[in-house]
Amino acid sequence: MTPDKWDRLRRVFAPVSTAPAQPPLYDPRQDPEVARDMAEERAAILEFDAGFSREEAERRAFGGSYVKWYITHS
Questions:
Q1: pLDDT digits (tens, 9 = 90+) for 18-37
Q2: Would you call 42 exposed, middle or buried from its count of C-beta atoms within 10 A (0-12, 13-18, 19+)?
Q3: 47: domain range?
Q4: How far is the C-alpha of 4 from the C-alpha of 10, rounded, in Å?
Q5: In a domain, 64, yes or no
Q6: What is the pTM of this model?
Q7: Does the residue 66 lie in any domain?
């Protein structure tokens, strides 16, 4: 291969941008409503897949999600 062809290949496979990625405008992890929705989903999974009672599943799901959210945002 000639050097000219190598240069063309390098340009084709070169990264599109070397600028750092911009953070998202909206971070769902900082929204308490999203945290609640995630906990409700987790409770449903624990209830139906793991066989826990509804009360036990909610206790486990909401207890864990609250602690994670509090640690992340405190």
A1: 666 776 666 666 677 877 88
A2: middle
A3: 28-74
A4: 10
A5: yes
A6: 0.51
A7: yes
